[in-house]
């Protein structure tokens, strides 16, 4: 850049009031000149979001949500299977516990049946 342009840029950076004044003058020139307006509008339109852009975004979001919903459904099915397995294990534990109680009662009754005559004989003999 030329020294004059460099000084102008430095002056505009240093002085917000002058920068605002220049911006207003340029805005008026842009508004008055059709080719400048067209150029500015074309630049703005390139950056603007269109309905088609929004529709594409919506479609992508729906696809992602569908994928997430499928994964959630899969996780829910696996959780249900785990709950069923846990329930089955609980039932088996309860059944085994009942068998153990039955066996312990049987052992104690057998011991009592075997020892009772001995205790009675010792009690009568003693």
TrEMBL record:
One of its GO terms (cellular component) is membrane. Keywords: Coiled coil, Membrane, Transmembrane, Transmembrane helix. Residues 51-92 form a coiled coil. The chain crosses the membrane at residues 99-120. GO terms for biological process: vesicle-mediated transport. It comes from the Archaea. SUPFAM superfamilies: t-snare proteins (SSF47661). Gene3D superfamilies: 3.90.20.10. This is DUF1640 domain-containing protein.
